UniProtKB/TrEMBL annotation:
NCBIfam families given in the database record: SP (TIGR00879)
GO molecular-function terms, A-Z: carbohydrate:proton symporter activity
Protein's membrane topology: Multi-pass membrane protein
Pfam families: Sugar_tr (PF00083)
Name the record gives this protein: Major facilitator superfamily (MFS) profile domain-containing protein
Family recorded in the similarity comment: Belongs to the major facilitator superfamily. Sugar transporter (TC 2.A.1.1) family.
Domain of life: Eukaryota
Location(s) in or outside the cell: Membrane
Length: 503
């Protein structure tokens, strides 16, 4: 391979970047629904006269419904395609937002929240999978982390919406906060139709010619497109010289996928499934949802009492989360997933411990202690910072890239189901837990879980930086772990590009 050709292949393809950005936009809507609820709950409780248990249910029901959505999304995306699944998620969000914006009662509000939750399940599964399948190995980390960045941006927009719409009359303010998400949902449902379908899904359907056309758009050279198509065809079990136009019905219908994933997995697939379930479990078991959703309540416990100051401090959480996830997107493909994960968990453990100490001191002090208040707010921001440079974005990058092609959609849906289950568990139990063991004790508990997460990632999550999606089973085999991925991929890419036949 010539130096100029190699340099061209190393550049990010603009078309694949635009596709990943548009697909990730649905995550902004989900992030907005999560962030806006943290402030809206203050006004909903006052307007609808609901109790703390109803507040917990309202906060967590979105994630229980997302679990249902995610379990069906994998099969749906294999059936109708990645692109139309994003459109479907947008339409579901639209319906949910309209219902929440209307909400004459708690029952209607819950119905809208449940509807939006199903859309969340679809969005969380499909956005990173589509981004991973459309991008090259060199920039897959950056593009696949865009959905998490968009979630953070959406959360920030939700916090800002809380602050400005809080100035409206009580009955109108929170309904506007929730209902305005219908506008971007409608726009996105039309915008996604301009995007190409995932080339890997097209190959699964036997549409190799269509997949080749898409790959020529999302790669920089014809040789790179041919190499990626060859890998995809091999992974899909299609003959090297075949340009099949008939759907591969056995694979496209998902036949045998659940059996291969859950009942009789090979050792590498078993390790992949454990890694995916583990990383989704620990993303929320370490307390991020408690901090994001209940940050106004945490700051109030720390001593911030005025509503406008509570909302402003919460906006700071959103800004911190968004900025540091943006930083992480540029390091994922340079530093690697594993190093960032371990660094992230180390920092989160320290921050959670400091937050637990500060809130315990505040709770047992008869007077207002400015240093404890400052330590509480600072610890929240440090926790968000370390979460955002590692665990937050890498959860979605890692789980969307490690499954083999034939198992990717359903495998990703299992990960999202675990993610939403843990999200719902934390968001629906946080108030009850801190009432039982104090709010400081709750964050000490999260710190202990973060330590367990560090050991899990150290022993069960190998590095995937620089590997193609078709190589992940080898990465999770014992001999695959021992190799230097960057050197191996560079050598193999050069040798195979010389030898690849014209497709």
């Amino acid at each position: 391979m010539g130096s100029s050709e190699a340099e061209q292949q190393s550049k990010m393809n603009k078309h694949s970047c635009v596709c990943a950005v548009v697909a990730s936009m649905i995550s902004i809507i989900f992030g907005y629904d999560t962030g806006v609820m943290s402030g809206a709950m203050i006004f909903i409780k006052e307007d609808l006269k609901i109790n703390d248990t109803q507040v917990e249910v309202l906060a967590g029901i979105l994630n229980l419904c997302a679990l249902v959505g995610s379990l069906t999304a994998g099969r749906i995306s294999d059936y109708i395609g990645r692109r139309y699944t994003i459109v479907l998620a947008s339409v579901i969000f639209l319906v949910g937002s309209v219902l929440m914006g209307y909400s004459p009662s708690y029952a209607v509000l819950m119905t809208g929240r449940c509807t939006a939750g199903i859309g969340v399940g679809y969005a969380l599964m499909i956005a990173p999978v589509y981004s991973a399948e459309i991008s090259s190995p060199s920039y897959r980390g950056l593009l696949t982390s865009l959905p998490e960045l968009c979630i953070s941006l959406g959360i920030l927009l939700g916090y800002i919406s809380n602050y400005f719409f809080a100035k409206l009359p009580l009955k109108l303010g929170w309904r506007t906060m929730l209902g305005i998400a219908a506008i971007p949902s409608l726009a996105l449902s039309f915008g996604v139709l301009k995007m190409p379908e995932s080339p890997r899904w097209l190959v699964m359907q036997g549409r190799v010619g269509d997949a080749e056309k898409v790959l020529l758009k999302v790669t920089n050279t014809k040789e790179e497109a041919e190499l990626r198509l060859l890998d995809i065809k091999t992974a899909a079990g299609i003959d090297d010289s075949s340009n099949v136009t008939r759907p591969n019905t056995k694979r496209s219908s998902g036949e045998g996928v659940w059996k291969e994933l859950l009942w009789k997995p090979t050792p590498p697939v078993r390790r992949i499934l454990i890694a995916a379930i583990g990383i989704h479990f620990f993303e929320h078991a370490t307390g991020i949802e408690a901090v994001v959703l209940y940050s106004p309540r945490i700051f109030k416990k720390a001593g911030v009492m005025a509503k406008d100051k509570l909302l402003l401090a919460t906006i700071g959480v959103g800004i911190t989360k968004t900025c540091f996830i943006l930083v992480a997107t540029f390091f994922l493909d340079k530093v690697g997933r594993r190093k960032l994960l371990l660094t992230s968990l180390g920092g989160m453990t320290v921050a959670l411990t400091m937050l637990g100490i500060a809130l315990t001191v505040v709770e047992h002090s008869a007077t207002k202690l400015l240093w404890a208040l400052g330590l509480s707010i600072g610890s929240v921001y440090v926790f968000i910072m370390f979460y955002s440079i590692g665990l937050g974005p890498i959860t979605w990058v890692y789980s969307s890239e490690i499954f083999p092609l034939r198992l990717r959609a359903q495998g990703a849906s299992i990960g999202v189901a675990v993610n939403r289950l843990m999200n719902a568990t934390v968001s629906m139990s946080f108030i009850s837990i801190y009432k039982a063991i104090t709010i400081g004790g709750t964050f000490f508990l999260f710190a202990c879980i973060a330590v367990l997460a560090w050991f899990f990632f150290f022993f069960f999550c190998p590095e995937t930086k620089g590997r193609t999606l078709e190589e992940m089973e080898m990465v999770f085999s014992k001999r695959g772990k021992a190799k230097n991925s960057d050197e191996r991929v560079d050598v193999e890419l050069e040798s195979r590009t010389r030898a690849v036949p014209s497709v």
